[in-house]
Write a structure and sequence with these properties.
Elements: H1 5-27, E1 31-34, H2 35-38, H3 40-46, E2 58-61, E3 69-74, E4 79-84, E5 96-103, E6 111-114, E7 120-124, E8 127-128, E9 132-133, E10 135-141, E11 144-150, H4 155-168
Antiparallel strand pairs: 1-2, 3-4, 4-5, 5-11, 6-7, 7-10, 8-9, 10-11
């Protein structure tokens, strides 16, 4: 009996497909980024601003922390700290990951959400048109406006980020 020629290719093809699936699955496993550690120089620079720095303790990422690039610090009205998928992203849509702001933050129109310490925030879902804008949440605390934007953010994760920043207090 002769072996079928097609079967000789099936086993290696199945093994390759299983390996590719395994690699893809491991590439999309979420990691947790310790924000105070990752953003330490930016936080130190932002502390010179006009408002206290409120920052979540951690954020879920779809890449290792080493592949996220921090920037920002003090602004004329507070602070603006970013994390991007590429260095020198400058809030570019293609490389934007997250942004943390305090001071003159524009209140995004959105759904009112209950936050820690009885604060009401405003949540806005990811929006897409010619390109997609990240989810955002804004709130006012002690007379200052704060905001977080995040490309992987759904409502629950945005509320959790804001709550973490509020509960952690000044950094």
């Amino acid at each position: 009996m002769r072996p079928r020629a097609g079967l000789a290719f099936v086993a290696p093809a199945l093994a390759a497909a299983a390996l590719a699936t395994s690699v893809l699955a491991s590439a999309t496993i979420a990691t947790t980024v310790n924000l105070p550690s990752k953003l330490a120089p930016e936080i130190a620079h932002a502390r010179h601003g006009r408002v206290v720095v409120l920052l979540p303790s951690s954020i879920r990422a779809d890449v290792p922390a080493s592949r996220l690039y921090p920037s920002g610090g003090e602004t004329a009205t507070g602070y603006d700290i970013q994390l991007a998928y590429a260095p020198e992203c400058n809030d570019g849509t293609a490389c934007f990951f997250a942004e943390f702001q305090g001071g003159a933050v524009t209140r995004e129109p959105g759904t009112p959400v209950a936050l820690a310490h009885g604060i009401t925030g405003s949540y806005r879902a990811i929006r897409c048109g010619a390109s997609c804008g990240p989810a955002s949440i804004t709130w006012t605390e002690d007379g200052a406006r704060y905001g977080v934007q995040y490309v992987l953010g759904g409502k629950a994760s945005m509320v959790a980020l804001a709550d973490s920043a509020i509960k952690a207090g000044p950094r």
